[in-house]
Amino acid sequence: MSDKNKRLDLSYSQMKWETIFKRILIVMSVIMLLLVAGTLVTLIVKSMPTIKSLGIGYLWGKVWDPVNNVYGARPFLMGTLLTSFTAIIISTPFSYAVAIYLGEYNTKGWLSNLLKNTVELIAAVPSIIYGFWALFVLVPIVRSFEMKIGVTPYGVGAFSASLVLAVMIIPYAASLGTSLIRMVPSPLKEGAYALGATRFEVIRSVILPFTRSGLFAGILLSLGRALGETMAVTILIGNTSAIGNTFKDVFFGPGNTMASVIANEFSEADHDLYYSALIELGLVLFFVTVIINLIGKRIITKYTNK
Amino acid sequence: MDARIKLRNTKSILFKALIIFLAFVITLPLIVVLLYIIKMGVVQVNWSFLVHAPTPEGVAGGGIANALVGSLLMVGMSAVVAIPVGLLAGIYLSENPGTRLAYYTGLCVDILQGVPSIVVGIVIYFWIVKPFGFSAISGSIALAIMMLPIVVRSTEQTLLLLPDSLKEAALSLGVPYHRVIMKVIVPCGFAGILSGIILSIARIIGETAPLLFTALGNVYISTKVTGPMDSLPHLIYFYSKSPYQDQIDQAWGASFILLMFVLILNITTKLITRKWNIQL
C-alpha cells in the first residue's frame, strides 16, 4: 500500500513538473515579446521630447547644432540613404554573380564549397575589423584616387564607407539567392534547353524571372544590414553634421549616418533634448530596419512555400 | 543562320566568364583584409602583449589583457543568460507551431535579428546603465539580446527536423513531457543547437556598438562585473582614433586576436554541421 502511494506521489510530482516545464517554455517565449515591446516603448518614450517640440519637421531639418539646441536629422538621413544605396548598387552585381554561379553553374564540388564558405566568411568578420583595416589601408587609396579626379582629398567620407559596406552586405543577398536559384524546378530549365536556348538565355529568361522576387528579398535583407551598420561606417564616414554644398562634396567628403551620429554623440549628450533627438534617430532606424526585414522575410516565406 | 547560333553561343560563354569573374573577384577584399590583419597583427602578439594591461599613452610596452579578459568574461556572461532563454524559447516554437504565441514570438525573433546593434545599446543604456551605472553586466545583457535570435532560430530549426516518432516513442513509455524534451529531443538535436550557439558567440564577440554606452571600456584589467570593462572590439575602436603609433600597432594585434577567435568559432561550426550533416 505504501509502495503504491509512493509511486502515485512520484507521478504527481512528475505531473507537476510537466506543468511547470510547459509554463517555463511559455515564459521564455513571452520574454521575446517583452524585449521587442520594451525596446519600442523605451525608444518612443525617450524620444518624446523631440517628437513633441520639433514634430515631423525634425526629420527634414537641415541644421544639426546641439550647442545652440538646433536639431535637424536631414544630414543623417541623407548620409544613411546615400551610403546604403551606393553600397547596394555596388554589391548587387557581385551578389547576383555569386548566386548564379553557386546556384546554376557550379552547384557541387570543392570549388563551389570553397566559394560558398568564403562568401559566408565575409559576413563573419566583425565590422570593427573592416572599419579599422579600411581606415589605414583603403582610406589612403581613396585619398589618392580623389586627388586624381580633382575633389578635395578627405579620404574618409560616404564614398569610403559605401565601398566597405558594399563588401560587408554581399553574403546576405548572395546566400539567399543561391538557395533560391537552386530551387528552380529543372523541368522549366530543361524545357528551355529543349527549345534550343543557350545557357545564358535560360538564365535570363527562365531562372531570373522565376527567382525575381526572391532575389529582391535578398537585396532588401542586405539593405537592412547596410542601414543599421554602425562601427565600420562610424570609423570611415568622417563625422561631420554639415551637409556639403555640391553632390561631389556630399559623396566624397565627410558626413554622418544615423547610426554613426548616435555612436559618436550619445555619450556626449548633455541635455534632454539632445538625448531625445539622438534616440529619435534610433527609433527611425528601428522602424525602417524592422519593416525592411519583415517585408524581406515575408517574401521569402511566401516564395519558399509555393 | 550559322552566324546567329555562333553569336548566341559566344554570348553565353562570355556571360559565364563574366559571372565567374565577378563571383571570385568579390572574395579578394576578404582575402586582402585577412592577410593584412594577419601580417600586421602577428608581429604584435607575444606573451607580454597578452598578459599586460595598456601602459599610459606614449609609454612603450603594455598589452591588451584588459580587453581580452573583458571580452571573454562578457561573452561568457551573455552566453549564460542567452543560452537557456534561447534554448527554451526555441523548444517552445518547435513544440507549438501554429499557436498564436508562437506566431508572435517568431515575429519578435525576426525583429530582434534585424535590430541594429546600436539601438540595442541605447535601450540597454536606459534599462540598466541609467539606474545602475556603466557595468560589464549591462554590456553582457546587450550582447545576450544580440545572441538570442540566433540561438532561438537554430534550436527551432534543428528540433523541427527531428522525426515525431522519437517523441512519440518516449511518451508512449510513460516518460513525462519535460524529460522527453530534455533527455530525448534536445540530446538528439544537440549538434545543431551547439553549432547555433557557437555561431551566435562568433557573432557577438566582435560587436562593438552595443558596448559603447554600456560596458564603456577600462584601461585596467578588471573582473568586477558591476564596473566598466574593456573588450577587444571596443579597444580597437578606441585605438583607431589614437594619435600614438604604438596604440595603433596594438590595435592591429587586437584585431588579429579577435579575427582568430571569430575564424576558429566559425570553422568549428562548419565542422560540426558537416559532421552531423545539418543545415542551418
List the defining traits of the structure above.
heterodimer; A: 306 residues; mainly alpha; MetI-like fold; 2 domains; 79% helix; flat; B: 280 residues; 13 helices; 76% helix
Q: Can you walk through the features of this model?
A:
The complex is a heterodimer of chains A (306) and B (280). Chain A is mainly α and 306 residues long. Chain A folds into two domains: 2-46; 55-305, MetI-like fold (Orthogonal Bundle), CATH 1.10.3720. Chain A has helices spanning 2-46, 48-54, 57-60, 74-105, 110-124, 127-149, 158-182, 186-194, 199-210, 212-228, 231-236, 247-252, 258-265, 272-305. The longest helix of chain A has 45 residues, at 2-46. Chain B has helices spanning 2-25, 27-42, 47-51, 65-95, 100-114, 117-132, 136-161, 164-172, 177-188, 190-205, 209-212, 232-240, 245-275. Chain B is mostly helical. Chain B is flat, with a radius of gyration of 24 Å. At the A-B interface, α1, α4, α5, α6 and α9 of A face α1, α2, α4, α5 and α6 of B.
C-alpha end-to-end distance of chain A: 60 Å
Largest sheet of chain A: none
Give the number of domains of chain A: 2
CATH C-level class of the largest domain in chain A is: Mainly Alpha
Global shape of chain B: flat
Compute the gyration radius of chain B: what is it?
24 Å
Quaternary structure state of the chains depicted: heterodimer
CATH top level label of the largest domain in chain B:
Mainly Alpha
